[in-house]
């Protein structure tokens, strides 16, 4: 945490993964700008991609002090970092018309992190996160809705509850044995 100059007392948000067009980078920048006045919230973005330099330039020009951008980390270091954060973030461009299910969710669930998903209307990941009580979601063209989600996540009791549900969801829905059973049942049905 000291390495990234993350204030201990802040709500610590993390996004880890690809930084490209599919993530709706302009929306992410709008969110960072809107959060810049909230000194009790800190956002760490870890990743790389075609839009990395755009984010770096934006943070520098806007002088946003409560966000950091870090190039991709070795997997073990990234997973250890997740365990020090409060909320995992998922971003999908609001213009998507086909469902997506970002794999970064699994790392968040494994770290018992609640999730805020800012997603398009074609995917069901936001609804799955909300219905499983692992976090909150909004459409990724509504900055105010994202801010409301972040504000709700300042409640430590909500984060604890979502974190417990996250670990349960990982074992219930994504455990290897379940995947094997699903594959075998699909093969048998054919």
Describe the structure.
The mean pLDDT is 91. The protein has helices spanning 25-35, 52-62, 75-82, 104-110, 125-131, 143-152, 156-173, 176-189; strands at residues 11-18, 41-48, 67-70, 87-91, 115-119, 135-139. It is globular and about 60 Å long. It is an alpha/beta fold and 190 residues long. The protein has one domain (2-189): Glycogen Phosphorylase B (Rossmann fold), CATH 3.40.50. The chain is built from eight helices and six strands; from the N terminus they run βαβαβαβαβαβααα.
- The CATH superfamily name is Glycogen Phosphorylase B
Please tell me the overall pLDDT.
Answer: 91
The first-to-last residue Cα distance is: 51 Å
Q: Rough shape?
A: globular
CATH class: Alpha Beta
* Integer-rounded radius of gyration: 17 Å
What pattern of helices and strands is seen along the backbone? EHEHEHEHEHEHHH
Unreliable residue stretches: none
Strand content: 15-25%
Largest sheet properties? 6 strands, parallel
